[in-house]
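Can't attach files on this board, so I'm pasting raw text. These are the components:
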Amino acid sequence: MKLKSYFQLEVSLENLCNRWSEIDYNFKKKYIVDKRIGIRTLDQDPVENLFTFICTKYGEKIELDDLEVDGIKEVYKFPKIAALAQDGVEARLKSLGFGYRAKYISQTAKYICSISNDPDSWLVDTLKYNRTKTGDILSGSADTHVKNNERYPSIKDELLKMTGVGPKVADCVCLMSMRVTQAIPVDTHVLQVARRDYADNSNFVNIIKSRVGSKKTSNRPKSSLPESTTVKMENCSGYDITVQEATELTKIIKSTSKNSKATVTKPIYEAIHKMFNVIFGEYSGWAQSILFVSDLPDSISSLGSNETGASDKPNGIVAGSGDAQPIIQPIIQPTPLSNTTGGRETRSKSKKIKLEE
DNA sequence: TCTGGACCTTA
DNA sequence: AAGGTCCAG
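---
Top answer:
Structure tokens for the assembled complex are below.
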């Protein structure tokens, strides 16, 4: 039962992918024609994911091979939040190479301890399921997938209060640990995909236009429909949009600042978020994960051809992380800061984890 | 309200 | 040079 919940198996990924393929040819091409992959978004532990995403950075990634599972000598548990809130943690983390993110970890841990007597349970008991108000959500029908889209704004707001948690990290946690299926973590890579596949080629606007044209309420040819016609997503609320609005969002997504660097500004972030919500609906976060991973180089996504060849790849079930989140969480030294065992390598530095022999 | 430099480490 | 967030302006 726990595994079923972790993998969110009550959701038919295949049905979703087929639906998305009908909606969007680009998705179909990525999902079916090119790579035939499926990424199942997992329901991961909020505490571990929160602190992991706060300190992930480009290029940081652990390969399973690096861990030498068979020869492993020690396994660290994820630390208690109270331990991370102790004085001296920031300096300790800095010495381990966490850089300026050391402060984020320390301050966020202190913050959570300041608002809850039970810091390790607060994220799931209060923030995720809001048991104090709604009772135990999980006691509902087993056939019903628990979604938190209704509470998405309030959950995200709470996460954004934490130091080091901006829109992207908040959406990572919402999507992968809070059962918010419409959360879209937007980073520079997603920006590239959004521009190339949906903005520069007008794909987004065309999708909305085709919806206008296929509305059953009208038998007129779509060319005669006013562009202000509102398109509603089925089974979704808050996704209404007009062709004009889609055009506006496209402009924002294509816009660049003076230095011409691909920066995800706040307007761009929100435009891309809304665009994916509108295109793919209530599970758009899941859809975006598939687009994201299918755009990665095969060497990174681990889904590409290897000695077995590309043709017999199964539809993968892969941990639902955004960018360079390790498959295995980075491991932070457990509680005893007093226990100065010396600079044991605890960071997720791939290929440099040494097992004492 | 929004922009862009600083943060820190690794590649 | 890259990476997301913070903060000064």
